[in-house]
From TrEMBL:
InterPro entries: ATPase_NBD, Carb_kinase_FGGY, Carb_kinase_FGGY_CS, FGGY_C, FGGY_Carb_Kinase, FGGY_N
Family the UniProt entry places it in: Belongs to the FGGY kinase family.
Positions of the Carbohydrate kinase FGGY N-terminal domain: 4-246
Membrane spanning stretches: none
GO process terms (BP): carbohydrate metabolic process
Protein origin, superkingdom: Bacteria
GO molecular function, one term: kinase activity
Name under which the protein is recorded: FGGY-family carbohydrate kinase
Length: 508
């Protein structure tokens, strides 16, 4: 009998799942969408029961049905979810409020200042290698303690997305070392045990999940979870990780010099390094793969920016999709390739939801700079695509300034379907940008790690997982275009410093 492995990833706007066989081939995949709520400026939330667990159950049942296999043939399950969220749950793993999302949620700015004053800037930099930012969970927990004390008092555990899903599957509260030690820093010691001293002003040590490796077995599918997911009782479930970590594994980031750029609702970049590299503009942590470190970076807008254009500027394309089934994003590209490089002098700052790296400013604002009466919506859209490429290049240049090698760049996520966008990124950066043959990303990484978690033959180590990662298309930079883009890159780099004071005045 063939063996199968399930991977399901929960993202900002959708959840995706795959079933792979023992040859690493996808035999079924399924996607469902959900909504992100924005109840107040800088506040972004998910309904964990509906959007996280509900999606997991829908996808799990659909994969089993569509593949027409017995649940008992699924030998292991892996789940990932958008990382650095904060979800308080009670003793029955019932959410006590909606989940506070990752770095896109900027509600805890007062708490970041409170913690910085409490510990001092030097201690914060010793812990993080940078100032506190909106991607850190500690300020989010403190926000709940300060603003919602009744929720805080009832909290049994503070979880992130993958921890919640794994707990619903197995009854065990775990978080992987990569996500736990980086996002919940400094609430854990480096060995993964809670640090009572650093926890004292934030939460009780017992309110934290147990730290394990991402592909360790977290537990086994319970009777209740079996009824909801269609999985067989007793199926092994790995600890899992965040979506970006799983996506990086799906592209072979298992050694120094290997890099992933995730084109999802936001951009997330992970570069494998030999050791930790401190730069307050970026992040660093010990990666999922034992012995490997990474430099990472994250924007707040990429797919969320193109979605904003779809919904508000190209709403007629959405109507056409409803009428004739042609994807709205495909129609939006009509004429965009004909717009000259640099969008006829139109430059976008894509800070529509504040920004994480490299500026760490939740109050940053989006800008369309250089608008004239001759510009069309096609100019605006191309400028938006170029702006994401400028952001990627800006952060690549910071990484390269530390003399770390970048041998291979794999782009993954929904954005890679836009071939012009990928070519723009190659031209702006001057780097080859490859896409893997299997582009579903994080859920594929989850399935690979699930197989490795039970030591299935051929999947035993992270190095062996690369045998199942095949190259797809490579975009080669046009170096003449690269030189021409340098002018626009320099203007992009100068726009934020020139306008930051005005941005902050708008937020007063």
């Amino acid at each position: 009998m063939e063996s199968y492995f399930m991977g399901i990833d929960t993202g900002t706007n959708s959840s995706k799942g795959v079933l792979i066989n023992s040859h690493g081939e996808i035999i079924a995949e399924y996607t469902t969408e959900h909504a992100m709520t924005n109840p107040a400026p800088g506040h972004y939330e998910h309904d964990a029961d509906k959007d996280w667990w509900g999606d997991f159950c829908i996808i799990s049942n659909a994969l089993i049905k569509n593949a027409n296999i017995s649940p008992s043939d699924i030998k292991a399950v892996g789940a990932s979810a958008l990382g650095a969220d904060c979800l308080p749950v009670d003793e029955q793993c019932r959410p006590l409020r909606k989940a506070i999302l990752y770095g896109i949620d900027a509600r805890a700015t007062d708490e970041m200042e409170q913690l910085t004053q409490m510990y001092g800037e030097e201690q914060i930099r010793n812990w993080y290698g940078r100032p506190l930012c909106s991607s850190d969970v500690m300020p989010k927990i403190l926000w709940i303690k300060n603003k919602e004390p009744e929720v805080y008092e009832k909290t049994h555990k503070f979880l992130t997305g993958s921890s919640f899903i794994t707990a619903k599957l197995t009854g065990n509260y775990v978080v992987d070392r990569f996500l736990g030690l980086a996002s919940f820093n400094p609430l854990y010691f480096n060995d993964g045990t809670p640090n009572p001293e650093t926890c004292k002003p934030i939460c009780r040590p017992d309110q934290l999940a147990e730290v394990k490796e991402a592909n360790d077995i977290a537990g086994y599918v319970t009777e209740k979870a079996s009824q909801e997911t269609g999985l067989a009782v007793g199926t092994p479930v790995i600890v899992g990780t965040d979506d970006s970590g799983a996506e990086a594994i799906s592209t072979g980031v298992v050694a120094p010099g290997k890099m992933m750029i995730q084109f999802g609702s936001s951009i997330y970049m992970i570069l494998g390094t030999k050791e930790l590299v401190d730069d307050e503009r970026l992040w660093r942590e010990e990666f999922i793969v034992p012995g490997l470190c990474d430099i990472s970076a994250g924007t707040n807008a990429a797919g969320s920016l193109t979605k904003w254009y779809r919904d508000h500027i190209f709403s007629d394309c959405v109507k056409l999709e409803t009428e004739n089934g042609i994807d709205a994003y495909q129609t939006m590209m009509d004429g965009v390739a004909d717009i000259p490089l640099g969008s006829d002098g139109l430059i976008t700052l894509p800070y529509f939801a504040g920004e994480r790296t490299p500026i760490n400013d939740p109050l940053a604002k989006g800008i369309l700079f250089g608008l004239s009466l001759s510009h069309t919506r096609q100019h605006m859209y191309r400028s938006a695509l170029e702006s994401v490429a400028y952001s990627v290049n800006q952060q690549l240049n910071i990484m390269l300034s530390h003399d770390v090698p970048i041998d291979q760049i794999f782009a993954v996520g929904g954005g890679v379907k836009n071939e012009l966008w990928m070519q723009i990124v190659a031209d702006v950066t001057g780097k080859e940008i490859s896409t893997p043959k299997i582009t579903v990303g994080a859920s594929f990484g989850d399935a690979l790690m699930a197989a490795s978690g039970i030591q299935y033959p051929g999947f035993e180590s992270f190095d062996k997982l690369t045998d199942f990662i095949k190259p797809g298309k490579t975009y080669y930079p046009d170096m003449d275009h690269h030189q021409a883009y340098k002018k626009y890159q320099s203007i992009y780099d100068a726009l934020y410093p020139a306008t930051v004071d005005l941005m902050h005045r708008l937020s007063e």
